[in-house]
Amino acid sequence: MVNMNFYPTCPNPELTVGVGRHSDMGALTVLLQDGIGGLFVKSEDGDDAGKWMEIPPVPAALVINVGDTLQILSNGRYRSAEHRVRTTNTQARVSIPIFTLPKPTEKIGPLPEAVEKDGVALYKEIVFQDYMNNFFGNVHDGKKSLDFARIN
Ligand SMILES: O=C(O)CCC(=O)C(=O)O
Ligand SMILES: [Fe+2]
C-alpha cells in the first residue's frame, strides 16, 4: 500500500501533532521523505533509550522502518520502530511511505523456528484484518498496537 502524506505549515507546531507516535503495522516500510525534516524515531537501547532522534533527510535516500508484523513474525528479534512526525510553521512537508502488508485474510504469528529457539511464543496468531481493525480503531499510542497480539 502506498500513502501520500501532506503536512501543511502549522502556525503553532509545538501545540500540534503531525503524526502521533506509532509503529507501522506491516513488515517493512519504505519511506521517501522530502528535504524538510521532522521525522523522529524513539531509541530503545543504550544510553539513548527513550530519546527521540531526528532522522535527517538524505537526498535520494529511503528510510526503511521495521513494522509490527516483522516483530511478531520474528518473535521479537526485530523490533518495530516507534516514530512520529513534527510539522513546522515555515514549510509544508510531503512524504511517501510504501507499506508491505500481509493480506487481510492472512494469519500472522511467530515463525515456528523462532519459537523453537526461544522456547516461548511472545505473540499469538492473529488474522491481519483483526490487527488492522484494532490499529485503526484506536488513537495512536506508541507501540500499544502490538498489545493486540502479545501473549501476557
Ligand atoms: O511522514 C513521514 O515521514 C512518516 C509518516 C508515517 O509515519 C506513516 O505514514 O506511517
Ligand atoms: Fe509510520
Automatic annotation (TrEMBL):
Protein name (Swiss-Prot/TrEMBL): 2-oxoglutarate (2OG) and Fe(II)-dependent oxygenase superfamily protein
Q: What is the lineage of its organism?
A: Eukaryota, Viridiplantae, Streptophyta, Embryophyta, Tracheophyta
Q: Which domain of life is it from?
A: Eukaryota
Secretion signal, residue range per the UniProt entry? none
Q: Ranges for the Fe2OG dioxygenase domain?
A: 1-102
Name any one Pfam family assigned in the record: 2OG-FeII_Oxy
Q: State the Gene3D superfamilies in the record.
A: B-lactam Antibiotic, Isopenicillin N Synthase, Chain (2.60.120.330)
